[in-house]
Amino acid sequence: MSFYEKQRLTEEKLEFDFESVHCEDIGLYVIGKYPRLQFGNFNFSEGLDWRNNAEATIRLTILNLINNGVIEVVKVLDSKTYFFKLFKSYHPNYYFKIIDLQVDKDWFSVMVYKTINEVNRTDYPDLYDYIDKIIGKILNNQANYNNPSKAFLIQILRIYTKKFKWIELIKTKKLLGLIDDFNLKVEDIYIPRISMQHKSLTDIENNLLRQNKDYKVFYKALNNKISYCFSKRNNDN
Questions:
Q1: What is the DSSP secondary structure assignment for residue 99, as one 8-state letter?
Q2: How far is CA 144 from the centre of its chain?
Q3: pTM across the whole model
Q4: Residue 131 near residue 58 (C-beta atoms within 8 A)
Q5: What are 64-76's pLDDT values in tens digits?
Q6: DSSP secondary structure of 7-57
């Protein structure tokens, strides 16, 4: 008999009916919205909601894996018992079932896919396990950040600049070198494709939120976990 025990009581595959779209480089979601992004050391100087865009990057990457038929969403009910079964609680949650090989070449999508596969080797994986591991692949788990979602997106952009010659992150010094400012430079020919594909995926999500109750509940649970996993890396905590 153990002090703590977790059991998975029920599983239900969720069905999301939507038109398939082709979306490459989903990790560059922020470029699709802000192809001329400028940012500096101070969060208030950019006029950009870093948290919202970081959440959307993760959430839409997962939706794209669903859209491509790579993973399924399974709703579960878990039970947790404490103090040698003296206390018992029930927790609805979700896990991702891999149903196909990931053939997408997008770096962030491949990383998310591999992380899901890695987490699925553990007992009773759930949303927190996936999201915390995904963010931990980008940010240092031992560090705290003034703005973890900003650090997350900037690190993703830095990785992509090493993979694509058509993306540059240019740093300039201001105030006698005390402040670093950054300008994102993307070759014009790529901007319409990225913007259009990301808009198509966002439109699919908005339609699901209006028409599919199961997705709406899943969306809220997923966003809550993403928000929590960023918040716990904040210096204020």
A1: -
A2: 19
A3: 0.90
A4: yes
A5: 999 989 999 999 9
A6: EEEEEEE------------GGGHHHHH-TT-EE-SSGGGS---HHHHHHHH
